[in-house]
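Researcher: Here's a chain I'd like modeled. Treat it as a single chain, no partners, no ligands.
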Amino acid sequence: MADKFDVIVIGAGPGGYVAAIRAAQLGLKTACVEKWIGKQGKVVHGGTCLNVGCIPSKALLEASHKFVEAKDEFGDLGIQTGDVQMDITKMMARKDQIVKNLTGGISGLFKANGVTPIDGTGKVIGSQQVEVTDPDGKAATYEADNIVIAAGSVPVEIPPTPLTEGLIVDSTGALEFEEAPKRLGVIGAGVIGLELGSVWNRLGSEVTVLEAMDDFLPMVDKDVAKETQKSLKKQGLDIKLGARVTGSEVKGQEVVVKYSDAKGDQEITFDKLIVCVGRKPYTKGVVGDGVGVDLDERGFIQVDDQCRTNVPGVYAIGDCVRGLMLAHKASEEGIMVADIIAGHKAEMNYDAIPSVIYTFPEVAWVGLTEQDAKAKGIEVKTGAFPYAASGRAMANNATEGMAKIVADAESDRVLGMHIVGQHAGELIAQGVIAMEFGSSAEDLALTCYAHPSLSETVHEAALAVEGHAIHMANRKKRK
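Model: Modeled as a single isolated chain. Structure tokens:
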């Protein structure tokens, strides 16, 4: 029997490594198990987010956006650039270096906080036992009073488009293209599909997005979704809604995709195909058969509001449990669970978790959409303000977008905030804070915002809830 710990965390992604650090900070003897083998052939921390998800994709999104700005938009500002070229090899190397810096940083944080890293594949074999099989195949058993499962998720594969090396890839493979394919297909118009499609569209690919659903971004407020779709179409993304993929065939270095839509059976040929139809929990083999941890029919570990499983002392967080598959949601759950294990009172507000799509313009939202509220029978009032009327947006040459606030019609409490526009992912924090503190739209309206700033779009949207927007013709009478 190997060492005994107060807490063993399985998985060093944004849920697991945060849980481990927090537990150690609270004085608990903590270990974190990770099996991810990086490009250097060694175990690395950070999970999907840092290695092949949030971080590398944002590095490519930022680089490709700056390329488009320099090539197509700097002239509007009076900046003469000449023939701008993108060095994709250098862009990829920069992306890899950022990943290396951050994953190495987690290892440093483990050392600084006294977390014991254990390399290998973790498996819960008892309510207080974890078996770890190291990269060489050697197994060891560790004891812990508490176990936190943070095993994450993996991309969903679909039968019509089996992955084929270098031609049909998932989101991970799409981060490793050595050049921009001439014709790129993307299956799925969700967050990942739109972000990756945007990257390669900016770098010269003809991008076609095939989405089975008839509605574009159904989880987003309809006004914001409409604005986003219009902008992406103008950029060159061909988004086909109601297009259900039925099959594919690799012909040499091309992929022929078959799909059906309102017009019947269709066929389209690509040089590369990215499959982005969602993610599924990675729970197979993480819990032994005799442990008794309940899973639902989709493979998610069942937990309560504080991430306890049905087995005492065993918790689960992040993508392998219910709720949004977001890194920051996993991190907050990790902090909550560590606090609970240490004997503190802790809970999490699941109604105030922001979501962001890092296209340009960015799309961000928190809380209820206007449509969600009405479906729940909640009477609401809304206020919206366009970026086109913002002095800072004009100065930034970024006038696409809008901010919208959804408030309870009776109490004026902010129920949701929805933004499409430059830096929406930063601005949405105002909505999160407002909801966390139970603010009203009037609270935001009475707040003094810096001028000129993009945040003023939020201020004006709050004013517009009662028809008091200053820099927009109001349709409501002042009160």
